[in-house]
Every structure is written in C-alpha cells, then in structure tokens.
Amino acid sequence: MQSLFKCAVAFTSFKVEYVFTDKTGTLTENNMEFIECCVDGNVYIPHAICNGQILSAASSIDMIDSSPGGYRREYEDLFFRALCLCHTVQVKEEETVDGIKRGIHQGRPTSFYISSSPDEVALVEGMKRLGYTYLRLKDNYMEILNKDDEIERFELLHVLNFDSVRRRMSVIVKSISGEYLMFCKGADSSIFPRVVSGKVEQVKTHVEQNAVEGLRTLCVAYRRLSESEYQEACHYLTEAKLALQDREQRLAQAYDVIERDFVLLGATAVEDRLQEKAADTIESLHKAGIKVWVLTGDKMETATATCYASKLFRRSTQILELTKKRTKEQSLHDVLFELSRTVLRQRSISGLSVDCLDFGLIIDGATLSAVLKPSQEVSGHGNYREIFLEICRNCSAVLCCRMAPLQKAQIVKLIKSSKEHPITLAVGDGANDVSMILEAHVGIGIMGKEGRQAARNSDYAIPKFKHLKKMLLVHGHYYYIRIAELVQYFFYKNVCFIFPQFLYQFFCGFSQQPLYDTAYLTLYNISFTSLPILLYSLVEQHVTIDTLKREPSLYRDIAKNSLLRWPVFLYWTCLGVFDAVIFFFGAYFLFDNTTFTSNGQLMTTNTQMMFGNWTFGTLIFTVLVFTVTLKLALDTRHWTWINHFVIWGSLLFYVIFSLLWGGIIWPFLNYQRMYYVFMQMLSSGPAWLSIILLITVSLLPDVIKKVLCRAICPTATERAQISQKLLPGSVAEVTPLSFRRSYKGRSTDSTLLHLGAAETLSLRSCSPLPQKLLAHLAEGGGSDLTSLSPYMLRLSGAGVAYYAPGPETPV
Fold first, then answer.
1. Which fold has domain 31-58+72-94+109-269?
2. What is the pLDDT of residues 176-222, one digit of tens each?
3. Which parts of the chain span the membrane according to its record (predicted)?
4. Domain 16-25+275-373+382-463: which topology?
5. Binding site residue list for ATP
6. What's the pTM value of the predicted model, to 2 decimals?
7. Is residue 364 annotated as a catalytic residue, yes or no?
8. CA-CA distances (angstroms) from residue 202 to 38, 130, 206, 365?
C-alpha cells in the first residue's frame, strides 16, 4: 500500500525538488583500487617507479620508503599481517574463465577474492601486490604467504563484525607461537580515540592528505593480549552472544570494552573512481532547479573531493561548514546564526544585483544529531531545526558526511515534512540506503555491487547514476505533462458533455428529459473520446528527447506542480463551460424558426428539416464529439501514424455508429426514436454549416490564447518548440568566425567557415559541431590545418570538410 501511494505521488507530482544520493556505489563505481599505505610514517606504493624502472610486487616493499631508513621493521610485518587477517574475504581457487584455467601463475598460487565489501577485496589484493598473500581459511586457521614465500598460520578465534555505528571491525587470532593478537581496522574517527601509542600525528597528516585527494582511508591498529585478557574478552563476548534480550546492545557494549588500548600501525588509501557521466548528471539536475544532497558515511575531506569532482560543488561555490570541529570553537547556536545571517544577507544583496553567490553546506553526523535533538526546541536558544532548514533552502547543494543510515532517513524526513512539502527523491545502492529510499516520496535503487536490497525496496531500479538524468528530465517531464493533460482534459470534455444537459432542463420544464440518446450517453466516455486521450497520455512528446537532455532548464517549467494548479484548472473548466454554451445556444438559435407539420412533427421553416428533440440533441452531440477530439489534436505535438489512426478513427467510428444506430430498425429495442435522425440531419446543408461554424467558434478562443501567449510571453518549453520547428538540425554556437552560404545548384545546405588563406571549413549541421573544435577555431587554431586532425576532419583540396553521419540540413 505504501509503495502504491509513493508511485501515485511520483506520477501525479513528478516535480522532484530534492535529490538525496549516496556516494559510494552511487556516484562512484564502487570498484576499489589499492593506491598506497602508510606504515609507521613510511609510505608504500605497489609497483612504484624507481630510477625509471617499475618495481615488482615483491621488491617494491623495500624500495619505496619515503623516509630514511627503509629497513624492515616489526610494524611493517604486523601491518601487512593485519590487513591479511582482519577481513571477511572468501577465496576462490582453480577457476575456469572463458575456457582458460586460472589459478596458477609462475608456479605460485593465485586466488580470486570475494567479499560483501569491495574495500576489503581491494586491501587484500593490495597486500598481495606488496608481497603478502592471503591464501585461505581452512579448519578455522587463516593462512598467509609472506614475502619470503613462507606460509604463516593463525587460528581465528573471534570476529568482531563491522557495523555503521562503530565504523570498525576487529579479529582476535592466535599465532603458532601461542601469542594472542587483536587486529582492528576502521575509520580514523573511530580508531584514533582508542589508540595509546604509535606515530599518530604522522599517520593523521597522511590520512588527511589522502582524503583531500579523494581517496578512501582506513586506519589499522593492533593490541597484544595476555592469557587473562583473552579469557576476559571471551567471557564478555560469550555472555553477550548468549543473551536472550538486548543482544545487539550487549554485543556493542562488549565490543566497546574489548576494543581499546590499541597501538597504531598505519593507514591505507583506496581509490573509488567516479561513475561515467555522474558529473554531467548532477550539473544537469542543478540546471533543472533540483537541489542535490549527498549523504555519505565517508570522511569529510574524501566526500568533499568527490563533490568537487562530480560538480556538486563548483569552484565558485562558497562552502559553509557546520561540523564538529567548528562547533568546538564556537557554540552550535552561534555557528547556526552566523551561517543564517550570511545566507540571508547574500539573498538580500542578490535581489538587487544580477550576480548571485552560490552556497554549499557541509555538515557531519555529530552536528546533525545536535541540531535535530528534541531538547533544543524547548531551550532558550530557540528552534535549531528551522534555522538549519532556512540555511539549507538557500544552498544549491548540501554534503552530509559521517552519516549513519538512520540519520539519512532523518534528513529526508526533515526536508519532506518542512512547510513547503517538497517532492523528494532518494537514490542509493546498498542496504544502508534502504531507510532513506523508503522515507522519500520516490525511491531509486541502483543495482550495484552491494546486493539488491536497495533495488528491491525502491520504486524504480536503474543500473547507473547517469540514467537518473533521462529518468527525471525526460521521462519525468513527459509523465507530468501527460498526466496533467489527462486529468484536465477529462474534466474539460465532461463539462462540455454535461453542461448542455443542465441547460436543457430550463427548456423542458425540468421533466428529466435527456438531451442525448442513451447509446450516446453510454459510449461517450467509453468509445467516442477515450482512445485519443489514452494514447496522448502514453506517447505524447511536446519536445524531443534530445532537446530535454540538452536543455535541462526546461524542467523548471513544471516547477511547483505548475500545470495542476487552480488557475490552469479554472481555465480548462471555463473553456468547457464556454464550449458547452456555444454548443447549446448555437444550435438553439440557428434552428429557432420551426413549425408543426400536419402529422405533429417540428420542421424548420427555411430548411424544411425535421427538427425535434432527438435531432437537436444529436446535433449538439456531433459538435461536442468533434470539438473535444479536435481540441486534443491541437494540443498534440508528437504525431505518429497511431495518433492519426486513433484520432481520425474515433471520429469516423462515431459517424459510422450513428449511421448504423439510426439507419436500422433494431428488433431488440422497445423504441425507435433515433431512426433516420442522424441521416436526415446530415442530408441538410445548413446542418453541415452549423456543425462547422460551431466547432470553429468553440475552438477559436483556445487557439487565440495559444497564439498570443506564444507571441507575448512564451515559456522556455514553447521557445524550444519554436526553435525545434524552425531549426530541425542542431546549430553550432556563434563564434567570432564569419559564416557565409555556399550555393551550388540545388545543393544549398552547406555552410562554410572562413579560416583565412582562401581555406574554408564545410560544416554539416545534422549533428552539433564539437565544442572542442569551436574553442580551437576561436583561439585561432584554424590557421594551421594540420592542428584540426584530432577533431575528425578530412583534408580535401584547398578546404577542410567536417563530416557527420546523416543527411545535410541548412544552418
């Protein structure tokens, strides 16, 4: 039921104003690659280049220390062992791929790693490139092949699984020598507070540097356990696991007690590349007037770098920070009011100036919890939620980092329940995004590498983030236009249908005499006028798909549910009432002069046409059917053969049905009141003229209104329609180069660009000239014809021709 409601909201109000997106796996590929690691302040890079030669995986470990003294130390072995042991990776060996058996390489065993987390696979593969290979988990023993080709075995005692609250995971292992070791890896914010020794400042500096570069970082630490400490840890874990009530809470308390007093070993850096066209999609959403929020659990510096790469933040964007670091220097109250004054001051200035400063907000999970804390609402400092919402309304993009899954849902709910009640859309790829997807009006699941939980709990599923552009800006635009026309056209055509019946009661003594025959009453909404609007609501394209992709700002024309508001609805209603009045009184006054014949029938004086109750109603109904169908034909922009078949076929079906219904004496009917009515009406010339005149007068106000609106104050969509009609081919942007026509007989569709030295560039306008070529020519690059080769140009005599597929059209 909830999903049905969400889909109804999506289709009836497909004007999305806020898009909430995850980062990892949604904006990025979730295809992790190990870049480097920092061990005790020394940096290690697999396959690093030294003296012009690429070092092998085994030799690179001794050669790439960035600090003096690259000797092998204990911390290095512990660090590499920690990453080979602290994970939940599974190993696959001896696999046949495309008929080729894989599993042995240069006499050394190779493995294929599988894990629910791509980060773990990347780290294990990175250690393999650095000389430490994780082999298998066999009989509860983890086996490692070290740099010296020696197999080390560790007994796996306990696994303290990762969760989004702790942001870390740990394992407790026992070496062959009987030593107990606990290895832990996790986010820097969860590791550093639990560290008691190690080169914390050096590692922290390196982590911040990697985060600024957009790399995903993890910190690694360990702790040696004595026999008594291990037994105590076992007691805590066993007691928590066997608890019948509050098991999750007791496990979290046990983990908190055990994971402490660590020695910091180092940190890792993993790269997660941005998805193809993710930046273009976000830029298009900005141009469409949609605000994009990124909700992620990553470190602030890493998420910020990704936001700049994806064009969520531009270089001109003024970043506002609402983070824990800043609230330590100032109180949360002061920071919020300072940011509020900043955005409000800029908004007042932008009202007087053409230039408007673009704001972007960064907030972390800890500060968000303080902002949303209920106790603040009753404090003397006022309501922080409203201040926070006011700041967000004036920001074009917001980044929420270090967010828990529940906080993502809280953010969506906060915006959704604000006083504007905007339509929200959430997109994610993992199970941690499900709560956010379910909370939003429209949920989008990406079928990525983290399972199908997000896709199964969403309204729509897409393979890549880039498809969101076409889904919203094209299909969303089309659906809204079609649904808006469908709803209002149904009101319009039924007002036209019922209002003449209402007027007729004043002329029949309120005797409940129907104006239309029962067959017409039954088939009006079923057969005569149903198929055209049904097809319109399925295939109408008021502008082309390419135009909507190329001009995302057209999405603004449907902003704030603009086509389903009261003014538009009243216009359609008034138009229906006007047409109904024209139908009724037009037929009434045109055939007003009637006399009784000798047999008691009414006949018009001038035309000698039988004109009774059913002739009057049939005339009005004929004008009605033709008017409402032609009205829809005037609104149709995208014509196909099926449009022609349905629209003209519906009118033809009405005529044929009326001829058969009134031309045959049906034996199963108790009455024959429609016999010969339609045929004798069409046999009269004045009836034909009356039908044409009434249809023309009924459609004229709507036509005049459309023409005047397009001429005086056209919308962006109407301007796109006009340019699309006048210029069916794409035209290159205006450049300082001069244009002239080249006329050769009947071929007048070539355009030449002067390049100087009697050389010309012939353009075909069926496809747009590449922007790089235009920039190259504008900078004077056209003087050297050989420099145009990268732009797919072909030398031809004294000129250079740019060729594109398809027929040539004039520019």
1. Calcium-transporting ATPase, cytoplasmic domain N (3.40.1110)
2. 988 999 999 998 888 999 999 888 899 999 998 888 888 889 999 99
3. 519-539, 569-591, 611-633, 645-669, 675-700
4. Rossmann fold (3.40.50)
5. 22-24, 120, 162, 185, 216, 296-298, 402, 408, 432-433
6. 0.75
7. no
8. 9, 22, 6, 26
